[in-house]
Specification:
Distance between the termini: 30 Å
Largest sheet: 6 strands, antiparallel
Structural class: alpha/beta
Helix content: 40-55%
Number of helices: 11
Number of strands: 11
Strand order of the largest sheet: 4-3-6-1-2-5
Length: 396
């Protein structure tokens, strides 16, 4: 809980800090990366730095946390913190790195706001930062302990025991521990980090959802080629360079969005490569013979771009109470008119007590979430996984 004195200061200065945060975060990253060049090379996603999404996510998380401290002083925003903590644990973040961030963030605030940052203002926002950082450090320590790992000790060598071309753009890599040791458990919907050495010497890291059921000796990741500018340098490198027999550096599984253990109805909604965590959830339901009422919704460009098309059909057919609904924007053959275009849930029965899981491009998730809210599904029962920095589904 924020102290009474700091609460008054933060409340008075939050509008100014919030208005300037877009100027503060670039200065923060510039200063931190200049002092620690290993961070942009080997830890931070260079693509997200180039397009600015990482800066916007940082700014958003700080603003939301400060606002929550003011509006709900007796309640901690655990959903926000859990998502960040899982992302950090997947990267092997350790407590000492929060001190680095603190130093350069507060130097950036002082540089941008100048004399407005009085000792009183600095002390109040210092309290906000360490309340957030302390909560994250504790959460991450618990995540490491639950996985049987030392703090930050997440990396392990995995051998590629198979590769499948799902579509022209998507390949599945089947992985097994190179040391033949035990395979760590995971919950359907979680992801792993993959670290690769690129030609320029950087060791870039990306997260990929596990696309298999939790049982078995292998772990599968399914990777889509990413075009554009900046292109997906790790994903494309995996496509171009990794074959059966190669060894990859892979992290332990983490992720706050995972299939619950209940028996109530569930909706799995995806678009494009967002189907990967949903296929894992669906495979788990099928493998356990789950009686849960399961509604599977997927949207894609065409039939040929739809990864796991046959698997979705087969897995859904194995369940006693499941239905699959698919939309294509540009069908390549005969396809129902009502299932052409973007996903429209108006003709899909949504159980009153459904729990929904969404994954795909942000506009898709925002649209489906809005449709579910309009159908009376509480926001607390709608969960989503973002494949980039989480900017929130309410953001413009």
């Amino acid at each position: 809980m924020l102290s009474e004195k700091s609460t008054a200061v933060v409340r008075a200065t939050l509008p100014a800090i919030g208005a300037a945060i877009g100027d503060i975060t670039p200065v923060f990253y510039r200063r931190m990366f200049a002092a620690h060049p290993e961070l942009p090379r080997d830890l931070f996603n260079r693509g997200n730095q180039a397009n600015g999404t990482q800066s916007r996510a940082l700014a958003g998380s700080i603003a939301v946390f400060a606002t929550m401290l003011l509006e709900h002083p007796d309640r901690r925003p655990d959903a926000l913190l859990a998502r960040i903590a899982h992302k950090h644990a997947a990267l092997g973040i350790t407590a000492d790195q929060y001190t680095i961030v603190h130093r350069h963030l507060f130097d950036a605030i002082a540089e941008v706001l100048g004399e407005a940052v009085t000792p009183e203002v600095a002390a109040a926002w210092d309290e906000v930062y360490w309340l957030m950082a302390g909560a994250l450090i504790a959460m991450e320590a618990r995540l490491y302990a639950a996985s049987g790992l030392g703090d930050g000790d997440v990396w392990r060598s995995w051998k590629v025991v198979g590769r499948l071309e799902e579509t022209a753009e998507v390949a599945t890599f089947m992985l097994r521990p190179a040391d033949d040791g035990p395979v760590p458990p995971f919950r359907p919907g979680q992801y792993v980090s993959v670290q690769v050495a690129l030609p320029d010497g950087a060791r870039q890291i990306r997260q990929y959802s596990l696309s298999c059921a939790p049982d078995g000796d292998d772990r599968w990741i399914s990777v889509k080629r990413v075009g554009g500018d900046p292109a997906g340098e790790v994903s494309n490198w995996l496509h171009e360079n990794v074959r059966e027999g190669d060894v990859l550096t892979v992290g332990a599984p983490f992720g706050d969005v995972a299939l619950d253990d209940g028996d109530g109805p569930v909706l799995l909604a995806s678009a494009g490569i967002g189907c990967t965590p949903m296929v894992s959830m669906l495979a788990h339901l099928a493998a356990t013979g789950s009686p849960r009422r399961t509604t599977v919704v997927h949207g894609d460009r065409t039939e040929s771009s739809h990864a796991f098309r046959e698997q979705m059909e087969l897995l859904t057919a194995k369940l006693p109470d499941a239905a699959l609904h698919v939309w294509y924007e540009r069908p390549e053959g005969e396809w129902p008119a009502e299932r052409t275009g973007l996903v429209d849930l108006s003709g899909v029965e949504i159980p009153e007590d459904v729990r929904a899981y969404l994954c795909g491009p942000v506009p898709f998730m925002r649209s489906v979430r809005t449709q579910l809210l309009e159908r009376g599904v509480p926001a607390s029962r709608i969960h989503y996984e973002s494949f980039g920095p989480d900017l929130g589904l309410d953001a413009d």
